[in-house]
Amino acid sequence: MKNLFIMATFAVIAIAGPRISRAQVGTGWTEVHPASHIQVEAHDKIKQFPGDSRTAINDGGSYSNSDGVETFEIKNRTANRVERRYLNDYRSGTRQFQADVTIFEPSDMESIHQIFHGTHGGPWLIVRQLSERGGSVRMGGETHSDIFATGLYGKAFRLNSVHDADKGEVWIYINGSLMWKGKSPDGYFYTKYGCYGTAAGASAKIEFRDVKMFEGGRPK
Asked: What's the CATH code of the domain at 105?
């Protein structure tokens, strides 16, 4: 799908301290708490765990949640998916995903956030990380783009995605700056995040803090 807007490459500056206090993008949002599952795939079979699990392991894939810090790891190539799948299927309205994300070396070519197009059974929007330029991010899947954030390895950054299903528009922000804007198809959608993609490096590790979901607002 053709992108409407791609900003120039943006070097992300490290944010001091373990947490980022910046509020969600835009106005009029209400925080919601949809149910979810933890999915861990190994040997082409997905094991599903309750959303409130503290640990979830399936051979080379593992998940842990310690005091709200969620760690998604692919330890070897027996596994390729460790994700949270929100049960927030929707066809209309606006949704926002927000998280403070840290990518660790040697993670490469992992999908860290997806909006699935449930009508067609696959991910439509993908935020993908790369090992290039000290750890970077671009759009993948049907929302392909050039790299727009660099220098990310080991540094917490704020990721926001905003989807207006009524207008068919989507926005991606990093540390409050608009990085990408595009169009979405019709149908129904749901949200995922974690670490997904057969490890291009020896292993992959993505950490999420202060994950939040919102409904009903606007990005501006």
From this structure: 2.60.120.200
